Amino acid sequence: METDTALQLWDEGQRRLRDADPVDRTQLERVTDAVVDELRRRLGGAFTTDELAALYSRGSDWVLDVAIATAPHHPNAWDAQTVGGAAFSRYVREAVDWSGGRRRTREELERQSEPLDRPMRG
Fold first, then answer.
1. Does residue 86 contact residue 39 with C-beta atoms inside 8 Å?
2. Can you tell me whether residue 50 is helix, strand or coil?
3. How far apart are CA 31 and CA 80, in angstroms?
4. Distance from C-alpha of 17 to C-alpha of 23, rounded to nearest angstrom
5. Which intervals of the chain are annotated as region Disordered (predicted)?
6. Pair 57, 1: CB distance under 8 Å
7. Average pLDDT in the chain
8. What is the pLDDT of residues 91-117, one digit of tens each?
């Protein structure tokens, strides 16, 4: 799956969470937080948006397992598309190539890593 497609799906999950019935939202938020914790465990340290999208592409059936374990008596919080999408949408903000709500280009990342006392390239 292309990273841009994954980003759109994740944004849709975040939107669905935001628009959820207030009665369900508390449990949906709890599950989303648990999925973020699991993403952190699975990816470990620094990662890129492409690496996160690759993890997503390999399958996210485990999201339902996390949802059921986190909110066993709240089946409305088991919507894996919503909580999974929202969790990935939140976690992508920690990617090394993410800044200001978007993915940074390779050129931007290279410029960032240049020492400040060296002149910038064109």
1. no
2. helix
3. 9
4. 12
5. 100-122
6. yes
7. 87
8. 999 998 887 655 555 555 555 555 545
Say what the pLDDT of residue 116 is: 46
CA 20 to chain centroid, in Å, comes to: 18
10-49 burial: b if 16+ Cβ within 10 Å, else e: beebbebbeebeeebbebbebbbebbbebbeeebeeebbb
Q: Who's near 110: CB < 8 A, 6+ residues apart?
A: none
Cα atoms found within 13 Å of the Cα of residue 4, Cβ hemisphere only:
1
Identity of residue 63: V
Report the predicted TM-score, pTM, of the whole model to 2 decimal places: 0.81
Name the nearest CA neighbour of 103 among 59, 56, 42, 47: 47
| Amino acid letter, 41 | R
